[in-house]
Design brief:
The complex is a heterodimer of chains A (248) and B (298). Chain A is α/β, with parallel strands linked by helices and 248 residues long. Chain A is built from eight helices and ten strands. A six-stranded mixed beta sheet of chain A has the order 6-7-8-3-9-10, with helices on both faces. In chain A, a hairpin with an 8-residue loop joins strand 1 and strand 2. By secondary structure, chain B is mainly α. In chain B, 78% of the residues lie in helices and 0% in strands. The chains are: A alpha/beta (248), B mainly alpha (298). At the A-B interface, helix 2, strand 6, helix 3 and helix 5 of A face helix 8, helix 9 and helix 12 of B. The structure holds adenosine-5'-triphosphate and magnesium ion. Adenosine-5'-triphosphate binds next to helix 1 of chain A.
């Protein structure tokens, strides 16, 4: 269970001597229970990825706290084997010196030192994300963007984390693979009781997989809605956002 | 192991490695390889040209040039390598600390570096030698003190750039320890940067050591050192230019060997470059066809 309480974050703006700061997150609070898929929707530059980085403990919030099962997510031990992520930029998602196999092995080896078991698991994982086992020995520069992204997803789910953050993870995939991955995520949610934080622009994908959606704007939560209630959003911004989708 | 395999495919790299390894071994066991005592003066053989007994001839005091070159490897190459290694090590540790952890650690280390770098290198070295006294050891200490800040700076920039990447973020998010991330993800990618900056400074360090020897601050007179041999030969540059040849070539060969090796290492380490090296051969027929088409069109 992930609990975000009163989180604020600002970045330095401008040159070396400027003291001006840009507030990226302004007092954000929400919760995500185990086994829930939480969507975060918002326009570009609204601070979604920043919020994601804070939830992963990569950066520290200026104010407030982020707790995972009651403990500070900043502590490495709290995250170890429990939290995982897939990021937006697939180009640098895999170490250029690693083969696909080595990349997926990295989080796997934390939980299970047995190499043989891990090997067969990698085959299974690759199959699940729609890749042939022959991809094992490829280097990242030999993969297409979508393939690299799928390896990233396989790597993220390999250690069966309890919480998985996907930051625009499926945007670079084509529709058929997108649905395949979405179905895989749904399946995993049921098997392992995983919870997802699903950051996206794509409301349809969010609606397909999420139980609850946070509508995010300018570093603030505009509205939190259950997916069944998506039609009856209250705030103007959320209405506008949905409107633009329908007219599409 | 993969690195060695890749390197052995590259001819230039193989030659460079051979040159470096031979130089180091010969330098380490100089008394064993040198045919004569490098400091033995024999005025009857003054400026003698090469003979079977003295393969590279004799210098202005009739000393065996080959033996002097061989003994000169120790200060000119071996000790320079030691000094370089230590300063790169210090630079790398501090560079990784400040590039990876950022924040206050970074600010502190970088301010210290700024202070070190604000003095001109030669002046710093002279000052340190002035305080510690004349001698090769002190010059090497001065080198380490002057150079580490520069290495720390360059390595920090490289580390910073790579620790922004998503695979490092993924490892951080999965709770893998910082030490492991640095060792597995950052050292391999920054290694080629480190190899390039170190190999490029080997040349300048060898030349600087020679410069200080010339000023009488480094190696003391009778002992052999390549830069000093060059200086001795300089006096008779127009009458006997061949005397410059041996030490000059020795410096050029060793410095180029290190530079070629660093280039080759970059290729051998990078899976991307390695494959792209094979591909153009397969693709080349199509490109020539394209060129021909263009020519026809004109
Ligand atoms: N490390 C940083 N330093 C300074 N400013 C930053 C940093 N990271 C993000 N920002 C700023 O924070 C704002 C939000 O960025 P963020 O990446 O969180 O947006 P986003 O909602 O993920 O957008 P997108 O949908 O395009 O990915 C941007 O205006 C950006 O300029
Ligand atoms: Mg983003």
């Amino acid at each position: 269970m992930l609990k975000v309480k009163g989180v604020k974050k600002s970045y330095k703006k401008g040159g070396l001597f400027s003291t001006e700061r840009q507030e990226v997150l302004k007092d954000v609070s929400f919760e995500c229970e185990n086994g829930v898929c939480l969507g975060i929707i918002g326009e570009s530059g609204s601070g979604k990825s920043t919020l994601g980085r804070l939830m992963l403990g990569i950066e520290k919030p200026d104010h407030g706290s982020i707790l995972f099962n009651g403990k500070e997510v900043e502590n490495r031990e709290v995250r170890l084997g429990n939290i995982s992520a897939v990021f937006q930029d697939y180009k640098s998602s895999i170490n250029p010196f690693f083969t696909v196999e080595e990349a997926i092995m990295e989080p796997l080896i934390i939980k299970n030192k047995n190499k043989k078991e891990n090997q067969s698991k990698i085959d299974q994982l690759l199959y699940r994300v729609g890749l042939n086992p022959s991809y094992r020995n490829k280097y990242p520069h030999e993969l297409s963007g979508g393939e690299a992204q799928r390896v990233g997803i396989a790597r993220a789910i390999s250690a069966e984390p309890t919480c998985l953050l996907l930051d625009e993870a499926i945007s670079s995939l084509d529709i058929s693979v997108q649905t395949q991955v979405l179905n895989l995520l749904k399946e995993l949610k049921n098997i392992y009781n995983m919870s997802f934080i699903f950051i996206t622009h794509d409301i349809q994908a969010a609606a397909y997989i999420c139980d609850r959606v946070i509508i995010f704007k300018d570093g603030k939560i505009e509205e939190i809605v259950e997916i069944e209630q998506l039609k009856n959003v209250q705030s103007d911004y959320a209405k506008q956002l949905l409107q633009s989708l329908i007219t599409f | 192991m993969r690195i060695f395999k890749n390197l052995s495919k590259d001819k230039l790299a193989t030659i460079s490695v051979t040159v470096i390894v031979v130089t180091i071994i010969v330098g380490l066991f100089a008394p064993f390889f040198a045919p004569h005592d490098p400091n033995q003066v024999n005025m009857s053989l003054r400026y003698a040209s090469s003979s079977w007994e003295y393969l590279l001839g004799n210098d202005h005091l009739g000393r065996c040039i080959l033996s002097r070159i061989i003994y000169g490897i120790r200060p000119s190459v071996l000790w320079v390598l030691v000094a370089l290694f230590i300063s790169v090590l210090i630079g790398a540790v501090l560079g990784f600390l400040s590039g990876y952890f950022r924040g206050k650690v970074d600010a502190f280390i970088m301010r210290v570096c700024d202070i070190m770098l604000s003095f001109p290198g030669y002046v710093m070295t002279l000052a340190i030698v002035g305080i510690l006294g004349v001698g090769l050891g002190n010059i090497l200490i001065a080198f380490i003190l002057v150079k580490w800040a520069w290495f720390a700076r360059v390595i920090r920039t490289s580390v910073m750039q790579y620790s922004e990447l998503e695979y490092v973020k993924f490892s951080k998010a999965s709770g893998i320890s910082d030490l492991k991330i640095i060792y597995k993800h950052l050292v391999p990618v920054t290694f080629s940067d480190i190899a390039v900056i170190s190999s490029s400074s080997i040349g300048s360090m060898i030349l600087q050591i020679s410069g200080f020897s010339f000023l009488g601050l480094g190696i003391q007179a009778p002992n052999a050192e390549w830069g000093m041999m060059l200086n001795e030969a300089r006096e008779v540059m127009f009458t006997r230019p061949e005397l410059m040849l041996a030490p000059g070539l020795a410096i050029v060969i060793v410095v180029s060997a290190f530079n070629f090796l660093s280039d080759a290492l970059q290729v051998a380490l990078d899976p991307k470059l390695l494959n792209s090296k094979k591909r153009p051969q397969q693709k080349s027929p199509t490109t020539t066809v394209k060129i021909q088409k263009k020519e026809v069109a004109h």
